[in-house]
Amino acid sequence: MEIYSNENEQMDALRRFFANNGKALAVGVVVGLVALGGWRYWSGHQETVDAGASAEYQQLTTAMQADKPQTLDAVAKFASENNNTYGALASLDLAKQYVEASQLDKAAAQLQSGLNDTKDANLQSVINLRLARVQLQQNQADAALKTLEGVKGDGWSAIVADIRGEALLSKGDKQGARDAWSKGVASDASPALKQMLQMKMNNLS
């Protein structure tokens, strides 16, 4: 759906990174935090758990189909039982299914849960952006503006500007929307995104 188009490339890159480098991440964390003799056992155990979560995530999300509720339930169960990056990714995938089914309350709940499952700043930014879009669809402009405050990093500035402009416009603040979109146009965004923001500004006139 259009609601997800601006973040798809970043989301796919994050998913591939964690799927392909989960083991290395687990080992790196252990090496950095544990310096005593027991670290080898812990490392091996954590690596096994991480690899298992990655494999299960791939299996469940690949099989997920909107017309088969049992597949959605399986992903929801996985997300609730894995308070880690894979749980957060599962929540994102499940939220997308709920949005496409117009079950916005369930989508928002999954995204909120995903935020609590990961400490990765980029993944948190993706989740916050998608949550803000869902909140806009729920006519919760103030909540969307608050959610956007959780998006960190200059690389997201144009997308944030796009959503902020939509939220402000829904509140009747045309000047605020114009200012937001203007900042997006002035940012280091893709030509396509800049053109879209400029068109929105032109439509205000």
UniProtKB/TrEMBL annotation:
Keyword vocabulary terms for this entry: Cell membrane, Chaperone, Membrane, Transmembrane, Transmembrane helix
Major localization listed first in the record, in broad terms: membrane
Domain of life from the UniProt record: Bacteria
Bilayer topology annotation: Single-pass type II membrane protein
Entry's localization field: Cell membrane
Transmembrane region(s): 24-42
Domain Ancillary SecYEG translocon subunit/Cell division coordinator CpoB TPR intervals: 15-204
InterPro entries: SecYEG/CpoB_TPR (IPR018704), TPR-like_helical_dom_sf (IPR011990), YfgM (IPR026039)
A UniProt-annotated Pfam family: TPR_21
Family designation: Belongs to the YfgM family.
Protein name as it appears in the record: Ancillary SecYEG translocon subunit
Organism of provenance: Candidatus Pantoea multigeneris
